[in-house]
Amino acid sequence: MSTSPHPLDQAIQLHAQGEDLYQGRLTPAYANMVGPFGGAIAAVVLNAVLQHPQRLGEPVALTVNFAGPIADADFEIRARPARTNRSTQHWSIELIQAGETAILASAMTAERRETWSDQELACPDVAPASEVPITPVSGFTPWVDNYEMRFIDGMLTFRPADARDDSQSRLWIRDQPPRALDFLSLTALADVFFPRVFLRRQQPCPAGTVSMTLYFHAGSAELAACGTEPLLACARAQVLHNGFADQTAELWSADGRLLASSQQLVYYKA
Amino acid sequence: MSTSPHPLDQAIQLHAQGEDLYQGRLTPAYANMVGPFGGAIAAVVLNAVLQHPQRLGEPVALTVNFAGPIADADFEIRARPARTNRSTQHWSIELIQAGETAILASAMTAERRETWSDQELACPDVAPASEVPITPVSGFTPWVDNYEMRFIDGMLTFRPADARDDSQSRLWIRDQPPRALDFLSLTALADVFFPRVFLRRQQPCPAGTVSMTLYFHAGSAELAACGTEPLLACARAQVLHNGFADQTAELWSADGRLLASSQQLVYYKA
Known about the structure:
2 copies of one chain form a homodimer.
Chain A: H1 7-11, E1 14-18, E2 21-24, H2 38-51, E3 58-66, E4 75-84, E5 88-97, E6 100-110, E7 118-119, E8 147-153, E9 169-175, H3 183-189, H4 196-201, E10 207-216, H5 220-224, E11 231-236, E12 239-241, E13 244-252, E14 258-268
Antiparallel strand pairs in A: 1-2, 2-4, 3-6, 3-10, 4-5, 5-6, 8-9, 9-11, 10-14, 11-13, 12-13, 13-14
């Protein structure tokens, strides 16, 4: 039985350096084609908020702007509670490397109270994870090896004949090795979708997320209750226009609860 | 013929105070039940970026975190280009009143190039604005008098018998008096939807937007070409959970182009 931390926790580990200041370095395990996997970047940014001694409540919203490249080297994260209210708190976060802002982020934390609730969006009616074979994805880019993916539809093949006029992807996914769900792993999972422009054209082109916003619709106990079960991850573009495409996405628990929803803007050069 | 500026331009007027610093004050015309209309706040925040002498390109993304109340008094906006790349720029923006952060925002501007583009989401098939009667909304809250609204569905009545199990609203809308479309008026229009929890329950409760992200899918020339024609505005919640509801929304031109898409997180106490 291994006692070393999960690869995700190794990657997003932070060391407090003083008030509002943390030092970190993502690991090669979460490398992407250029720089680190955006989901790991978003998770390490959120981790600074989660570790901050002044944090109030749990994350409800996170916006990460990918302002510049991140090299395989140390960086600093400055996380500052810009405003603290009675039950909510707003965070300003900046990841700085070699003196330059690489990530500009904001987060909101809140103490939730149980109240009238309703899920309007219906969970997609798909086969359970146990009935969907694991999709071989190794070799695409390093970070994918940290995930077990079971594509239902919208898999990237880079065969032009597979180009379609819609960019929906739906897959069951979990950390590999499995890791109990929490805000950090959920944040990383929200960015596992290949750029929709790849899927539309089934050919590679320069592309990358420039901004991502994530809303959390569950508390820590609800996430913990998901354990290591795969989540259903769904994404599609609404419009791809002159170099910028959007992407809306949802992450569902195995029992059909919408745990998180997100919106991304993705640069592309087609 | 009047030569005074449009009420929106009066409301979001800014005075440069020095490097990265602007002074402003929203007008009573854009007041909401508590504080100013969030759409006017988002527009004045974007205006600081648009007026900044170092701006590169046009807005592609805007996130506005409503951190605290704004009083009917002067405020300062600090807008700083945190990172400037070859064709993109990332902005950190803060609205400060009486020494406290009331708004924490980020924006991205970019020089777009014409390239392969496609609109995946289909424009809703609804009657044209000319065939939908103007909905009387005056009296709800002051800011609504600045808009001409033509509801197709999802109008707020506050009659409990009208409570439904979905929160979709679709309406044709434009500034009143009419104003040629640009990034500023489009930004304000993205926040014209009443909290979805009101519509679900058709009863008032404490509620307000805490975070809004807006992506622009058109350039300034494309917006100008819309002139003063009404836009089709559509919104719905996906989930309302323990005090926080999301809202996804789209703004369409009369000829069916997706001009902007947005995501909001809305606090509610039900």
